[in-house]
Design goal:
Creatine Amidinohydrolase, Chain A, domain 1; binds glycine; binds manganese (II) ion; Creatine Amidinohydrolase; 465 residues
Amino acid sequence: MRRSLAATLVLAVLLGPAAVGAQLAEAPVRYEDDFLSSEFHQSRREAVASTLPPDGVALFFAAPTRTRSNDVDYQYRQSSDLLYLTGSEEPGTVLLLAPGGVVVDGRRVTEILFVPPRDPASEVWDGRRYGTERAMEQLGVQLAVESTRFAGIVPPLLREADRPVFLLQPFDAVESDGHLAPQLSATGGALRARGGADVDSSLLRRTLNRLRMEKTPEEMVLLQRAIDITAEAHREVMSQVEPGWAEYEIEALLEYVFKRSGSEAPGFQSIVGSGENSVILHYETNRRTTRPGDVVVIDIGAEYHGYSADITRTIPVNGTFSPDQRAIYEIVLEAQRAGIEATRVGNMFYAPHQAAAQVLATGLARLGLIRSANDQAGLRRFFMHGTSHYLGLDVHDVGTNGQLTPGTVITVEPGIYIAADEDIDPRWWNIGVRIEDDILVTNAGPQVLSARAPRTVAEIEALMR
Ligand code: GLY
Ligand code: MN
Ligand code: MN
């Protein structure tokens, strides 16, 4: 539902100033629904099929549903690979690709999507299903059949011992759930009946790693939106937060901006670590109350139609970095600049890490926190993670780990984390700083997709004033 700013203001008057977003610094960013086209997914299926032998069959299973407690599930998230290949967000779905064609109901087809059957009684509870007609119409798959037919169609193909079979992962690693159990047991039985004939569970993974690594322009629209929403959330917190806010209040404001802007969910648990929690890399508890003098590491990413952003900002909760916090911050920022500078076509995936680590070591040595710029063990004490990962449908996305190529998006996220250890001068205690941006590799050099989130000391302090 669209709500105008005027209506928001009326609501604010009715509910009081704390209730709704009228007091937010920025007007909501709103997006129309802009899902990937069925042609995109079709082109991805064709790209995968082109790597298979003509008589091969490849199977892709939906992600399992997961129980949170008793009869309540976690919010469903489709397997990124199946989402990429079909656009379907339905559990219980299986895609079969057969580039040389297989005959179903007297018709030769190269792809089959097995979908849960329409079921009015279940749909009243759980929402509409595609069903076969709508799956063909909206997803553009050549043939959709009800998943109840899986056992009659797939096992006979798999039992042909000389037909190459391709899976994304070893079959015994595929997780089951209620929707997929019959299809998985039929598959398992047929694979065993092959008598151990070879099943390839690495080619599809390698192919999808390569394809998913380089984003098409259509994908970049969605990823950029996820990033813009996330940058807006950072700006909102910077302009509102004060000492005394609990970490979860910061989290609430961030995720309010996410959802208000059409993000379906955070792409990962939001990390809001203040004070001593700023030095815990993946702190997700978010229960502490901030105090004057804290830095707060805020590592967040909105997911938009499957694509996740990943942006970290570190802010002084009272609006001004102390000189010591600032000294650490400037080193991390300089390291990040070096990492971004190294995010170039032809460089290896690890080049940004090497560049950033060198700057961090030099800076830490200058402050006397490590022995020298060559002190690798010392560096690891304060910087214990990698600098980059691929970004896309998964926050830690797939890729080749080889040379950087145009269209690839990686994060560059150096950090320094100083715990309250006795052998360290207390002036540095509980200063954790991470700065993370999302970088597109282009032939014209690195493009910072997340530049809308203030990054320098001056920009952050100005917005927090
Ligand atoms: N948000 C997790 C990471 O930065 O890799
Ligand atoms: Mn992150
Ligand atoms: Mn990251």
